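Fold these two proteins, one after the other.
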Amino acid sequence: MNIGITLMIVGMVTVFAVLLIIINLSKLLISVVNKVAPEEEAKSKVVSQAPAIAADVMEVIRQTVSQVTGGRGKVVNVVKI
């Protein structure tokens, strides 16, 4: 019985130590990469001019949002994808 408990404790301590080593090495790797590799600049998206949504369709969308949200919702922008 003592051998089993000792083996369990040694195994748990070993796993804990290995996990601590992995965590600290990961943090070190992240900090090194952040210092060495420059941050990429955000590329601006070129938005193509999609055909405008018809006025009657826009009104249906506004009424639907108003009905679903109980009058609290507001349609600001609609983009066709």
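Now the second one:
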Amino acid sequence: MNDMEKKYMLAAYQEALKAFKEDEVPIGCVIVKDGEVIARAHNKKVKKNCAVYHAEIECMIKAARKLSNWNLKGCDLYVTLEPCMMCTGAIVNSRIDNIYYGCKDPKGGALVSNIRFKRIKGLNHYPGMRGGIMKEECSELLKAFFKNKR
């Protein structure tokens, strides 16, 4: 992990902390373009009472509004947990260049844990990906959240 990856994952982690304080599953996300964070978001499924309000989706919506363009080519996405199927599909469709994630999601991850999206032939875009950035911190925050729930 280089300094820039840690800097941006730390920004995503700060969003995850906001979700934790709001009693949402603590997942945070930022989108970076040309070295600048252009969008930040965290899970809001409970607050908005809708399953699609994942951190990545919220963040892509904000980035698209900021750029006035659905096509997020030239952007990198940093998220504290490996994206699910829904979010991975949205990332592919938005043409994000690279996905950086904190920890794997053994139950719902669609990059490497359950579905390996790069093995799906014929997609119109295959972003780069790198995992394990601040994985201990990201994992511990999730464990603490679910421990409190039990």
